[in-house]
Amino acid sequence: MQVVLSVEEMQNIADRLRKEGKRIGFVPTMGYLHEAHLSLVRNVKSRCDRVVVSIFVNPTQFGPGEDFERYPRDEEGDKAKLEREGVDFLFMPGKAEMYPPGYQTYVDVSEVSKGLCGEFRPRHFRGMATIVLKLFNVVKPHVAVFGEKDYQQLMVIKQMVKDLNLNIEIIPGTLMREEDGIAMSSRNTYLSPADRENARRIYRSLQKGKELFDSGERRVSSIVKTVEEVLRSKDGIVVQYVEIRDAETLEKIDRVNGLAVIAIAAMVGSVRLIDNMIIGRSEQ
Questions:
Q1: What is the pTM of this model?
Q2: How far apart, in whole angstroms, are the C-alpha atoms of residue 71 and residue 238?
Q3: Is 207 exposed, middle or buried (0-12, 13-18, 19+ CB in 10 A)?
Q4: Exposed, middle or buried by CB within 10 Å (0-12, 13-18, 19+), for 239?
Q5: Residue 283's pLDDT is what?
Q6: Mean pLDDT calculated for residue range 116-125
Q7: Residue 256: its pLDDT value, please?
């Protein structure tokens, strides 16, 4: 695995690979890699000739008081994991490479970033879309994979790629869970044993919502009420939102008549966790 630190070198490598007719697959990350990240690497590896993974903790998607400074990092451990997965190139730029002095251009994907996490993290999607577009312009991939755990992020990226006519195939990666049901996340390392026990209710609440849907309930208000009852059944979780949205557009809906996503964000102790579950298929 070749470690690349500069934008210019990565662009030169990408140009060479494309000239050789190689299909480039890309997995952008912020590091502290776990099994869900590695599943994305395997996903893209099965589709492409060469795999690029980036590690960059992007400061512009963190708001005031968020965890940029303490975001978990494990550079050597990440390198070892990616080596074992057979990654070809690891792109690890510094802040000055991605945001040189005088930087002033940002990407705003206006509608799909509204509500949900966009309400509670108003700077997040602007910074995320900006860095993803910059990474696309550096790595020049044919295919990029993004996990479904960050569902609104995935939809923002899909919209950006569509709107800006980027010739990149965006592949969703399956949401992966730990043995106790908690969605895999680098932030899970912050959870105390008591917090972790409380966090398990998030997945249980999603399961209850899906069970109600599977039993025939289609009213969003009823399903949301059931999910919230599980979340609030004990102390330890502060709910930011429970919503059900159209899974393709993220538009608000009153009834589930097709593919929909139950989306949750909650504070468990000092840790903000997000999770979701897809429900429904087109009804004839």
A1: 0.95
A2: 21
A3: middle
A4: middle
A5: 45
A6: 95
A7: 96
Average pLDDT over every residue of 126-143: 98
Domain 186-277 sits in CATH at 3.30.1300.10
Q: Give 118-175 as a DSSP string.
A: HHH-TTHHHHHHHHHHHHHHHH--SEEEEETTSHHHHHHHHHHHHHTT---EEEEEPP
pLDDT band of 284, cuts 50, 70, 90: very low
CA 114 to chain centre: 16
Q: Which residues are catalytic?
A: 37
- The dotted CATH code for 2-173 is 3.40.50.620
**What confidence tier does 194 reach under pLDDT thresholds 50, 70, 90?**
very high
Nearest to 57 by CA among 49, 69, 65: 69
Q: Of 254, 252, 243, 248, give the one whose Cα is nearest residue 276.
A: 243
* Total residue count of the chain as it appears in this document: 284
Buried b (16+ CB within 10 A) or exposed e, 48-76: bebbbbbbbbbebbbeeeeeeeebeeeee
Name the residue among 141, 185, 195, 146 with its Cα closest to residue 26: 141
Phi, psi values for residue 276, rounded to 5°: -160, 165
End-to-end Cα, the chain, rounded Å? 50
Give the 3-state DSSP-derived string for 202-258, with helices as H, strands as E and coil as C: HHHHHHHHHHHHHCCCCEHHHHHHHHHHHHCCCCCEEEEEEEEEECCCCCECCECCC
> Which amino acid would we find at residue 263?
A
Q: Say what the pLDDT of residue 65 is.
A: 86
Segments making up each domain of the chain, as ranges? 2-173, 186-277
Q: State the SS3 of 56-83.
A: CCCHHHCCCCCCCCCCCCCHHHHHHHHH
Q: What is residue 182's DSSP assignment? A: P
CB neighbours of residue 41 within 10 Å: 23
Are the beta carbons of 33 and 82 closer than 8 angstroms?
Answer: yes
